[in-house]
Design brief:
Elements lengths: L12 E5 L3 H13 L3 E5 L2 H11 L3 E5 L7 H10 L8 E5 L4 H9 L4 E4 L4 H12 L2
Helix pairs in contact: 2-3
């Protein structure tokens, strides 16, 4: 019985966009331990610059951020023909129906409520980035 995580996420590139250093570090730690390569950004503007350079397989994005929020950033990502097929998973501390619907309208592929669990995070990557 091995304690090692499944290696099916090895080589999967994930971007975590959140203005909270704690959330970025937590997600980065969990994803790195699962074998992912992780790139972080503090807001939508920084993320848009990094997406072109890193071409992540999956993007986790916080909704409430300064300058460019998650909805706006997701709409820009999904509106770009080069990046529209990258799965975008919204992260929010709000779990309302309106927030989920708005996430869908801008093209998000899934919605996770913070605080997320390790299994939710890894499950989302497994479902969307390795499909």
């Amino acid at each position: 019985m091995s304690e090692n995580p499944p290696s099916n996420l090895a080589g999967v590139s994930v971007m975590v966009i959140d203005d909270s250093k704690t959330i970025r570090r937590t997600a980065e730690s969990l994803l790195t331990k699962a074998g992912c390569t992780v790139v972080t950004a503090v807001d939508g503007f920084e993320a848009l610059a990094k997406i072109a350079d890193h071409r992540p397989d999956l993007i986790f994005i916080d909704i409430m951020m300064p300058r460019l929020d998650g909805y706006q950033a997701c709409a820009l990502i999904k509106g770009n023909p080069t990046f529209r097929n990258i799965p975008v998973i919204m992260l929010s501390s709000k779990d309302g129906l309106f927030d989920r619907a708005r996430g869908r309208l801008v093209g998000s592929d899934k919605y996770l409520t913070k605080p997320f669990t390790k299994s939710e995070l890894i499950g989302a990557v497994t479902a969307h980035a390795t499909a």
